[in-house]
Amino acid sequence: MKTFHQGIRRPNLRLEAVECFSDDEKIENIIETATGIGGSGIVYFALIKTLERFSEFLDTRGIPHLCYHGKLPPKQRRRIQDEFMKSELPVLATNAFGLGIDKPDIRFIVHAEIPGSIESYYQEIGRAGRDGKPSTCRMLYCQDDLTIHMDFIKWSNPAPAFLQKLFGVLKAREQKIQSLGREYLENELFYKNRFDFRLDTGLNLFERYGVTSGSLEQKNIKIITGSLPPELLDQSEHEAKLMSDQKKLAGIVQYFRTGKCRRHAIEEYFGFIDEPSCGNCDNCC
Asked: pTM for the whole thing?
């Protein structure tokens, strides 16, 4: 915990939060940060489709940049990482980017969409200014971004009733699913509402608990147990996890709205009280 605490107290990081009411405001903020501060930087997004849309905006404004997300082929991801390490180009990225990246001269981190928790935010801004030089960490807050994370929370915490339904469909329709794949299974589960990622979470849980073997993408998935394990059917555990994730999201909103020192707000979230103000965030100066 001592090492964790020392990581928060990095006086070279300037913490800022800006409320934006449109994509245009966010774009102007990103451009202002990238051109005003200069150097290498990361702009984080929660959704790939938003990242790609903002990339198009930057292209029309002639702002050179890189793009990184988990759906890119592994070879392309490695190439982008290598280019980022060697250049001063900013990268638009989902949180898939950054693990294993140790670039000391990252001058800015922008969250174009809010992260889902203070824990994620702390980890991601920690990649800035490792050389000890001044660096800016700016969060762009929009009320609409909360909807994205509320959906994430729902998708990542499927209810026991949904898991039971998924188990039943996989068991009863095994041959058709192996023949027709994901689209057929989605239609059986969601009818016309296919924009629902509880399926992916459910399949990951089934694999982890040894409920299934094979892969939906390879069209060889099959049930290998007679019933779901009790852990996946525990309603109280499901509700506790849901509440925990919602509380973490509320922590990000509280961080944005605070009028006190932002570093102090993060320290307080992690249980460190009576710490001195940083004198370097947008609330302190």
From this structure: 0.88
